[in-house]
Structures are given as C-alpha cells and as structure tokens.
Amino acid sequence: MSIETEAAEVEFVPEKANTLRYIPKHLAIFAVLIFVWEMANRLGLIDPLLGPKPTQIVEAMYSIFIGKGGIWPHLGNTFGKAMGGFAIGTFIGMALATAAALSVGFRDYLKPYIIIIEAMPRIAVGPIFIAALGFGWSSAVALGALVCFFAPFVNTMTGLMQVDEETEELFRSLGASKRQIFFKLRVPNAMPLITAGIKLAVAGAFAGALVAEFISATNGLGVLMRQYVQTLNMEFSFATLLSITFFAFLLFRTMEWINYHVIYWHSEPLMQKRSRRLARNWETTMNAVGGGQPIAARGVA
What pLDDT shows up at residue 96? Predict the structure, then answer.
C-alpha cells in the first residue's frame, strides 16, 4: 500500500451542514413516514393514546407555541438549566482531561473515579442531587453537568495524548518550550476530538435537566410533559417531546457550524480563504511601508 493511500485513509474530513442536494431526500422520507403514521391512525391500526395523529400533534404545537404560547417560559427555564450544566460539566471535564494528559500519575489516580462516575445511573443519582441541593436550578444544573462531563473528558484526554512523536521531536529540536509544544502542537492536533466531545455534551445537555424536572420541579419542559402525560393529553405530550428534540438538534447543528469554522485548517476552502486574506493584509502592509508604491512596481524598479 502506498504512502498516499495510507494518508488518504486517515485524512480527517470535518462535518458540514447538509448540502442542498440531500434536503429533498430527507423531506421525501419524512413525508412518507408522516403519511403512513397518519393513515395507520385513521384506519385504527394505532392506538390514539400511544400515537396520536400527526395532524393533531401539529395543532398542539401551534397551540403551545403560538396560540396559547405556554411553552416559552418552560423552554427558557429548561434551556438555562441545560446550558448551565453543559458549561460546568464541559469545563470540569476538559480541565481534568488536560491535567490527566500531562501527568501520568494523576491519570492513573483519576481513572477509577471517572469509571465509577460514568457507571452511575443518572436517574438513580437524580433524587440524591435533589435531596442534597434542593429543588430548582441547583440540582438540575448539577445533574446536567454530570451528564455532560464524560464525553469532553474522554475526547480531550485522548486528543491531547495522540501526538505524532516525530513532530513533537521536531518541535523540541527547534527549541520549542513545553508551553509552545502544548499550545502549538497538542491543542491544534486534539481539536477535532475535543469539539466532537463538546458536540456530544451539548446534545445530551437537555437530558440531565429533564431528568431533574421529571423527578421534581415546578417549571420546565419536563414538568410540562409530565402534566400532559398524567392527563393522557398525548398530542401535547408528543408536541413537547418534538420541541425538546428540535432544540437539542438545533444546538448540535450550531456546534457543528462552530466546529467547521474553528478547525479551519482541516477545510481546503477555508484555508484558501484565509490564505487570500493574509496575502491581502501582507500586501497592504508592504505597500504602506513602501510609500504606497505597489510591490510589483518596486520589483521592476
């Protein structure tokens, strides 16, 4: 196998938003699924309590978002809890991962505790957090942080430890300090894995907040959905569930967009764009130094 083939097999390709050519296919599949669901419900093949009609779910979503607008306070409450847990869990996970990647002793000491934390069932931990931190934001944010902790920790530590030895030796031979090796080599090399862990964390950020709200809370999407289920108002339950799914998906796609633009060196179009911008800046600077005379003209002269 040639070197070019091996390089092509491990080449990193960043995720981008779906291109326009995929949208019609997704819409067609979605339309077929909705049509089958609607017809099966109308023909009595699906229990309305288990699966209400899609048209009823759409009417319920219109009611909670536009008609009555009752979902907005609950959405803001749950979103705040989820983002608080995401920020705290991601920060702690990345900080501990950085320390573990730089210190073998600390990594060996920390490993069993991380495994224990990840093995704990979130639902079982929820009542303990509520008993310790009380009802409201504190317990929900703490549970969200626990849910969001593991993916950034594992991905950050793995990324920082996966450094090409020859490249690192080259940095050392050029007189680079440990600080320079860390920020100029390890961190850029680990960015794809770090951002992947952050995307997983933000996708699951709602889970921790919702678990706390399901157990005990006075407001939030979990409370709203629990009330609808208890009254067998299934179309509104599905509408709330789809709302949670949509906003979690929107957060995930936002992180993908940020990931694509932050790791610009893995994208040929972004690298070309950046190179052209740097070239224009350099030419402007050189023209200013040369008294406004173009670079080409100075070369001829």
Answer: 94
Give the C-alpha distances (Å, rounded to integers) separating 22 from 29, 31, 36, 242, 251: 11, 14, 22, 22, 20
Q: How far is residue 210's CA from residue 75's CA, in Å, rounded to a whole number? A: 11
DSSP result, 41-64: HHTT-S-TTTS--HHHHHHHHHII
Closest CA to 254 of 242, 266, 262, 265: 262
Query: What is the pLDDT confidence band of residue 84, given thresholds at 50, 70 and 90?
Result: very high
What per-residue confidence (pLDDT) applies to 13?
45
According to the model, what pLDDT value does residue 291 have?
56
- Are the CB atoms for 217 and 223 separated by under 8 Å? yes
| Burial readout 180-208 (b: 16 or more C-beta within 10 A, e: otherwise) | ebbeebbeebbbbbbbbbbbbbbbbbbbb
State the pLDDT at residue 111: 86
Tokens of 207: 């889970």
Walk me through the domains of the chain, giving residue ranges and CATH numbers.
Answer: 71-267 (1.10.3720.10)
The two tokens of residue 193 are 């894995």
Q: How much is the average pLDDT of 107-122?
A: 85
